[in-house]
Amino acid sequence: MSIMSFAKMNTNLPGEKSKSLVERRENIVPKGVSYGVPAFAESADGALIKDVDGNTFIDFVGAIGVQNVGHSHPKVKQALHEQVDQFIHTGFNVMMFESYIELAEKLASLAPGQHEKKVLLQNSGAEAVENAVKIARKYTKRQGIISFSRGYHGRTLMTMTMTSKVKPYKFEFGPFAPEVYRAPFPYMYRRPDGLTEEQYEDFVLEEFRNFFVSDVAPESIAAVVMEPVQGEGGFIVPGKRFVQGVSQLCKENGILFIADEIQTGFARTGRYFAIEHFDVVPDLLTVSKSMGAGVPISGVIGRKEIMDAADPGELGGTYSGSPLGCKAALAVLDIIEEEGLNQRGEEIGKIVMDKFKVFYDKFDCIGDIRGLGAMCAIEIVKDRKTKEPAKDLTNQIIKEANKRGLLILSAGIYSNVLRLLMPLVITDEQLAEGLTILENSIEAALVSSGSVSLV
Length: 455
Hints:
4-aminobutyrate:2-oxoglutarate transaminase activity; EC 2.6.1.19; 13 helices; (S)-3-amino-2-methylpropionate transaminase activity; identical protein binding; transferase; Aspartate Aminotransferase, domain 2
């Protein structure tokens, strides 16, 4: 009895049609806009993407965390069709529409904390962070913003300044926004020898306290912005001890705690918001990516008194909280609840981490496996003792996976982390096949590089 294969590769990459489109792209699109696989999409459904040459890929990227409810979900498509038939855009600051209010109410009810909340809707994750900073400064009457080492918050001037990785995000793009400071963030895998995880957390937390003495006075800081799990930074999961410690220091010093949930939100970690795992209630929370299932929309959710600090006209934008985005987001929230995607996120995470343990025992290039819910990663190294990053090998694994029909991306400050962000509607069979392709790709990359493939 043959087993159905979901990944189907009819051509080498790129196929003839994609090759032609790549050539056209090179003539018209700036080289600063990067791409992963050299292929062009024709259709997508659930956790599968078909390209213009007839190749079908299992998607472990989800448009970098955008497709938690899967590609082209019927309920999202229906919601969009219905909205297009009514109207496409009026501008909420010109002629309002009910879906903005309904979405804001639902987001406020789902966000952590029993306090009264208000919600601002925007277009992109970077816009959400920018506006959270504006609101924090307006409310506190302070200027300083603290982000963390390896953090990623966007590519606009403010968010690029807050982002840690220099290349490709910051190199030669300065000068940067003033009054932005970067604090240490725990990286368990790379902690100093001899320290337990608990001791290391305490050490980094103490460094954070000292930060207010050596780098900036707490009285000048408006907000601390933290990803509950660092995304672009390499899927770094902090301990609850650290997150709660930072939150408490913020409270003691009148500093707002902002949770950046743009990549971690909407069931990715097995909760609506990853900050829930740490029993911390943020003052402000930023959302985007999977909130709209591919339709641009983002938001800032926050305490009522903080969100009301800005006066009329000081927040908003032409397309902010568009009718299409609001309808897509409302459909997404219904799907998460009706299809139990928070539970599914936990299930996927367990399946993936169990498989990763097998990988770890088999391949000595794997230095660390980690994750929270279905936000899982493998760190690739040249040597487990030295932990030297293996960027080239990581890139080779991705290429091997692509040519076998699996979409996967790297992350991390050293670009040596394989990150998994598959749609949460992926079937068990598709997930298993994707993980098998990944296993075969690691082995093929090791063999082609001349490295020892097995432990």
